[in-house]
Amino acid sequence: MKTLLIILFSYTLLFLLSCEKKEEVTYEPSFASPKNFPAIKYPKDNAYAYSRWKLGKKLFYDNALSRNQTINCGSCHQTQFAMADNLAFSLGIDGAIGFRNAPTLANVAYHPYYNFDGGNQSLEMQVLVPIQEHVEFDFNIIEIAKRLANNSEYQNMSKEAYNRELDYYVITRALANFERTLISGNSKYDKYSREETSLTAKELRGFNLFTSSRTNCNACHAGFNFTNYAFANNGLKKEYADEGRARVTKLGADKARFKVPTLRNIEKTAPYMHDGSLTTLYDVVSHYNSGGNNHVNKSNLIAPLGLTQDEMNDLVAFLKTLTDESFINNPLFKNN
What we know:
The protein has helices spanning 2-26, 50-60, 73-76, 123-126, 128-132, 141-147, 152-162, 168-179, 188-193, 201-210, 217-220, 246-249, 281-290, 309-320, 325-328, and strands at 231-232, 258-259.
């Protein structure tokens, strides 16, 4: 009888363990867009699939993508900084210094083009930029594929995800597939918009200023992602070392014009501007309040605002309501 009980207990334990293992293997996270967001448009050849997402995440955090295998995508796009960096210019291999501030990857699925100068039209193409930049990964997509050719785990994942061996096509598409799921839309402001919470009096005053004709903040930082994706000069400097949009178009009218960034999670993505030259949100508001510096391509919307110190603090308070802690702390996006 005792022997029979032991056998029954063993089979029961094995059954429970097998069920637990099966649950871990079959679990697939949901990346549904918030109700107030449009549906994500995936390319026909790169529709979302969990197998593609897993492969993309693995590549995103793999140092093998850099020439000397010391940094990865997550080195400059860190979850605690809302998939941005806390340096004015991120560091590449051998301590090389970049030439633009690393933007957040939150909601990049909705961008019509990428980089501050709009030089790339798709995420699949954009992921090549840090790989080949000498001050970033300083490598080559073909060489990455060769480096990982004998990695059986990568090859198995690649065949499951794209039905082909790991190559440049798979690497670029898997990374883009992962990045398109980096959706942020659950900030205090979003909850306020859904009537799930209230703003403080200070935050509400800031919101009213933000949307007023007095500041025109939402003329550029418009829509659900708080950007109109336009290229503009905000009078940050009189002279610019960075040509901005003109780096792509070669047009004088585009000199020192940069893509308007999203304001989502702006509290976590300091320092600010294309060159990381402004340290705090108050510094940013102060810059716009001053009307900025004169530049031939400065936007007509940039003019002195005449805000009081209290009003500037109110604007800062509102901007902080755009912080999405659930996005920043989402374990699905962390390197684990």
